Amino acid sequence: MTDKVEQTEEASDVYEVRKQKLDDLRKGGFDFPNTFRRTHLASDITAAHAGDDKETLQEAKVHVTIAGRIVLRRVMGKASFFHIQDVSGRMQVYARKNDLPDIYDDFKQWDLGDIVGVSGTLFITNTGELTVHAESLVLLTKSLRPLPDKFHGLTDQEQKYRKRYVDLIANEETRETFVLRSKLIRTFRHVMEQHNFLEVETPMMHPIPGGAVARPFVTHHHALGMDMFLRIAPELYLKRLVVGGFERVYEVNRNFRNEGISTRHNPEFTMVEFYQAYADYKELMAFTETLFHALCDEVMGTRQIEYQDYTIDFDKPFERLTINDAILKHHDDIKAEELETLEGCRAILDKLHFSYKKTDGIGKLQLIIFEETVEHQLIQPTFIIDYPTEVSPLAKRSATNPDVTDRFELFIAGREIANGFSELNDAEDQAERFKKQVEEKDAGDLEAMHYDSDYIEALEYGMPPTAGEGIGIDRLVMLFTNSPSIRDVVLFPHMRHESS
Q: Hey, how many other C-beta atoms are within 10 angstroms of the C-beta on 297?
């Protein structure tokens, strides 16, 4: 506690000193100018001249204009070195008083964190570092708050989440994470376009929450005089579009669920959800493998991804198991016949000390056993198939067993990454399942679905045989960046207020 107080006091002192510097600058006419324009990024300069030798570069007299934040500096009497950081990386600058007689003394008062513009010629130092020999310097933004320690960056994990802007300044790894996230989403869009999917946007506020089993956030629209819900999933609207004739649609956007926060869950999260007419869940599983191959190839350059203590191999065919097969594979002490009766499933859960409801059917009980004891063990990409009908209110029943659906979930590194199924397009069956969900809601299940009469009407116009899938972008980015928490891959994760 003492160290934290001392650090706070030190930061406060620096803040006051810098405020005084800004006051002095204002008196001299400084007004945060916006007329400087750069011609180069640090990475472009490095890439273009990485192989040059000193003599060649000196003779070429390459002139560059760059801008960025001062992140390192060695200020001396008549000559100084400093590094500036832009969006692409860092570049060293050499400033000499003889070259900058009108600004050099002022420059010596500038601070780490200040944003500056530099024009000059490139050269290579005796230590071999590509450097800009400054011919002009201009202060663009005065920084009032000190940057984190230059060697360790911002290390307090909570502060990294709360003050992401500082984390991005101080930690290159964080910047790389969010650049990769952007590349991942861009590649998603490219693959979907290659397969003739149309990108669409559907409402974020719903009059009736639907498309998933989850507790919604509630808001109120004053002009309409009605409660509305932040969407928990875009599914029912996307399927309305399939009814309307858009046979391949997808959306990349946010969902909101009023549930717990953990290393795997954030109240708002990004999903890509897509629907394809005249396809079934088996075809979507094959497409999912193709999609992941493209993501690995384009974003990572390899199909073997290191995550925590594991190597995830996306090149091998993804395993496919039913829920019961997965339970039996990972439990030597459970027999197949035990999973086939209510009494057997209840006995297993009682022995394992997991709770369940007396009204839960055999499918729900099997799912609890799977989720509590098996899911975290599915490290390599694994499709779990044939989900019980009672926990899959929007999925089509299996033609050979009406108690299960044509549905899969994809698990990687012990986490659900994707959920897909052959869509239920029988309006009467869907109405009955909605009614069952309403009964569960009336019995106290806050996550059960509402009855959506307009969606039933849409199905009554006729939806072609269709398959749909949702993939969690945040969890996927966790995998591809070897990040242990979802907060590491969300720019501004939700957190409790800081205690005073």
A: 13
In single-letter form, the type of residue at position 104 comes to Y
pLDDT 10s digits, 449-493: 889 999 999 999 999 999 999 999 999 999 999 999 999 999 999
Structure-token pair, residue 350: 């009682």
Strand residue runs (E) in 226-377 = 226-230, 248-256, 268-277, 304-307, 310-313, 319-322
- Structure-token pair, residue 348: 């297993």
| 455 within 8 A of 210, measured Cβ to Cβ | yes
CB of 216 closer than 8 Å to CB of 235:
no
User: How many Cα atoms within 13 Å fall on the side-chain side of residue 464?
Assistant: 13
Alpha-carbon distance of 177 to 181, in angstroms, equals: 6
- Least confident stretch, 7-21, 24-38, 51-65, 201-215: 7-21
- Residue pair 142/114 in contact (Cβ under 8 Å)? The answer is yes
Helix axes 473-481, 172-194, angle to 10 degrees: 130
The H or E element containing residue 16 is helix 2-27
One-letter amino acid of 295: L
Alpha helices in 251-322 (DSSP H): 281-295
DSSP, collapsed to helix, strand or coil, labels residue 251 as strand
**Predicted pLDDT at 151:** 52
Q: What amino acid occupies position 212?
A: A
Cβ–Cβ under 8 Å, residues 117 and 66: yes
Structure tokens at 399: 């033609």
- Mean pLDDT is highest, among 9-23, 72-86, 432-446, 486-500, for 72-86
- Can you list the pairs that 12-16 forms with residues at least 24 positions away whose Cβ atoms lie under 8 Å? 14/145, 14/146, 15/144, 15/145, 15/146
